[in-house]
Structure formats: C-alpha cells, structure tokens
Amino acid sequence: MMERFRPRAEIERVLDEMDRLLTTPLRRGRFLPRLTPFRPAIDLYETPDALIVKALVPGAKPDDIHVSLEHTTLTIRGTYGYTLPEDEETEATWHFREAVSGEFTETLTLPAVVDPDAVTATVEQGVLTLKMPKSAETRAKHIPVHEAGALVG
Which of 48, 78, 103, 152 has its CA 20 to 30 A from that of 40? Predict the structure, then answer.
C-alpha cells in the first residue's frame, strides 16, 4: 500500500531530529527560525489618474530604499529592521533575538503605463508610498457623442 506524502509531517520529523541534536530547542515559541525570506507586504491600487503602491518596510529610512521603474516593471530594493552598533552587538548577551534585519527585493508588473518623471516616493513610519501618475495615453478619455450632421466643418 502506498503512503501519501505529507510535507508538514516531514518537516515536523526533521525539527524533532534537530531538537534532539541541539541544546536549544528550535520549536519552542521564540526559537522557531524564519523559514522564508522577508517580503514586504504590498498593496497596489488604482485611481482614475494614478497607481498607488504601499509597502511595509519596517525600520527602513529613505536612504535604505531604492526604487526603479522600467516600462511597467517596478522594482523595490532595500533593507529592513535595525542593526545594533558594533560594540553593543559584541558585548551583548542575547536572551531573545527575533527582530531580524536584512535585505529584500520585490518586483511587480504594473497594470498600466505610468509617467516615470512624475513618480513620487515617501517613507513614513515604516510605510513606503509610491504615487505614480498614469501616462496621458493610458488615462481614460471622455469622447463626446454628437448628433449626426451636428458637426460642421
């Protein structure tokens, strides 16, 4: 009889083995390691005139974030979290270390062409906001309808 593959059970088995080998248990609350890389939570929405991106980048300052735009491809790179001064880092005795820091890269395909010269980017309290006005050719245009023969000329 074939046994169904259960990835979660396999991960549990590996963690049990690691707990057995290490002095600090990996699966007890605060010691569970981050298993996936950091990805900022991103919202992308559209107004009649612009695309708006909001990205959660905890601890990032304006100099920590680099935004590039190529046609409809938006790339956000940066660092998140905080780092301790080197002397404090080496002299510290750690009891918990959950506040991680590092680098991230996120690439999005935008649903419309934007005017790259009019894009603004701000960061406030860990939220990066990009306001990207749509290019003139992608904005909705109102075309008036006239009675046949009403247009002279």
Answer: 48
Q: Are 65 and 53 in contact (CB under 8 A)?
A: no
pTM score of the predicted model = 0.65
DSSP class of 4: P
The predicted-structure confidence for 19-74, as pLDDT tens digits, reads as follows 677 755 555 555 455 556 778 899 999 999 999 999 999 888 899 999 999 999 99
Q: How far apart are CA 44 and CA 41, in angstroms?
A: 10
Alpha-carbon distance 5 to 58, whole Å? Answer: 37
Measured over all CA atoms, what is the biggest interatomic distance in the chain, rounded to whole angstroms?
Answer: 89
Burial (0-12, 13-18, 19+ Cβ within 10 Å), 141: exposed
Classify domain 34-138 by CATH number: 2.60.40.790
Give domain limits for the chain.
Answer: 34-138
117-146 per-position pLDDT tens digit: 999 999 999 999 999 999 877 666 777 887
Question: Are 115 and 134 within 8 A, CB to CB?
Answer: yes
